[in-house]
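For practice. Any example?
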Amino acid sequence: MTVTQIAELSGVSIGTVDRVLHNRGRVSPETQQKVQEIIEKFSYQPNILAQQLRKNNHYRIGLLMPEITADYGYWQRLYTSIRQTIENEFSAFSFSLVPFFFTRTVHTSLIAQCNQLLKENCNAYIIAPVQQEEMLALLEAFPANIPYCFVDSPLPEASPLFTVAQNPYKAGFLAGRLTELTATDKNGVYIAIRTHAEAYNQAERARGFCDWFAKKGKKAVEIIPADTSPAGIVRETEKLLSVFERIAGICTVTVETQFVADCLTKLGRKNDIAVTGFDMIEENLQLLQSGAIDCIISQRAHEQGQLAVQKLARNLLYNEKPAEHINIPLEIFFKENVLEA
């Protein structure tokens, strides 16, 4: 019986179990009793040597991800979850977060921020590998004995301790199915828009989307706008309307669904073109509720951050090895199953 197992059986965090074991307070009587019953039932005996070693250790978790102001709140949610999980669930241990943020549109930013992070001598790393080729090259400089994990996207050819993310190909395949389901003119062309050519997860989503229609003998195309600003996406949407006579549906395999939906609505084309996309940011939620967006697949950023910290911390504290792939469910939202604010 380990502290982790006690926490799982009790339905509480490791930090809560630690506070009960050492009578540090800040635990409700009900929780105290529940944890104590598990301890007594399984005759738990603490490992005094391991406890002493942990008391003498301070764990620094390095974080490398896009700027939290990017992508309309998605990265902010992920960062907040990581920070809060460290503060709330592992408050009984000595953990600190060392965050470094890079600008995706500036080629040298990832390299510069990664090099700065490596100077911090962290005990483990959480990485969002959104720039595939650059990240693979940078990982060669990471110490072989220091664990790292991925969030948001898998990255083939890398060897993280584990990855917390959706299966991007399956997510795109599902997006194709949902786009066809909500389309009025199901025999028109279907379009997948992605905004970052270097992002593995976006490429896989677009591939999955197109494969859904290929197996049904329908036409689907992938578009990467030259200008991925809001105005650029709007111009690309207007261009698509002139290039293709019949468009059945458009899916943004990124967070920018709002701009396609808003453009089609203003042009009076939303009723005959299905709009689907990813991420339940506030803007997409509002347009989903209004009917301008037909369906959104959520990446559950909060859950990703929480799981990444939990698994990494347990590896550092108890040498627990997690599953290599921790798959985030493909959570689907329509207007009808969104709770009103």
Notes: The chain has a mean pLDDT of 92.
